[in-house]
Amino acid sequence: MMALIRDATPADLSTIFRFVRELAEYEKLADQVVATEADFAKALFGPNPRALALIMEVDGDPAGFALWFYNFSTFLGRHGIWIEDVYVAPDFRGQGLGGMVFRHLAQRAVAEGLGRLEWWVLNWNKPAIDFYAGIGAVPMDEWTVQRVTGEALLRLAGQAPQTKES
């Protein structure tokens, strides 16, 4: 087996989009995927990219992806990496690809003088939680995630939500 992790290119957009849908199915969140391939093209490769992606390959075949971006810790006074998604396709699981991705991002963080890696995991995903514990991750149980989206985001921004008549 020849495993490789590389930066994604625009030629990988359909693969990334497929993996996002597969991840959403696995997480039982497929109904929440509203992004399009064009959204990923803009976010990853547009004039002002705000996210980055890695592609995992095994013997030249796409095996998974990771999507990440820089965040900032005011307590550390340094940037970090927020890992939005890591997905390994079912046929390639158990071959060490997840560990390779986290090692790759940890090496990048250290080389760039960043303070940490962070991500979320669904509380029912025991295989992932066990894997993360094995690489030294520590759950942050004292924090509760907050989110403003959709109509609430528009209201907070002082804009009226769109109605079907609008």
Automatic annotation (TrEMBL):
<dbReference type="InterPro" id="IPR051016">
    <property type="entry name" value="Diverse_Substrate_AcTransf"/>
</dbReference>
<dbReference type="Pfam" id="PF00583">
    <property type="entry name" value="Acetyltransf_1"/>
</dbReference>
<dbReference type="GO" id="GO:0008080">
    <property type="term" value="F:N-acetyltransferase activity"/>
</dbReference>
<comment type="similarity">
    <text>Belongs to the acetyltransferase family.</text>
</comment>
<dbReference type="InterPro" id="IPR016181">
    <property type="entry name" value="Acyl_CoA_acyltransferase"/>
</dbReference>
<dbReference type="InterPro" id="IPR000182">
    <property type="entry name" value="GNAT_dom"/>
</dbReference>
<keyword id="KW-0808">Transferase</keyword>
<keyword id="KW-0012">Acyltransferase</keyword>
<protein>
    <submittedName>
        <fullName>GNAT family N-acetyltransferase</fullName>
    </submittedName>
</protein>
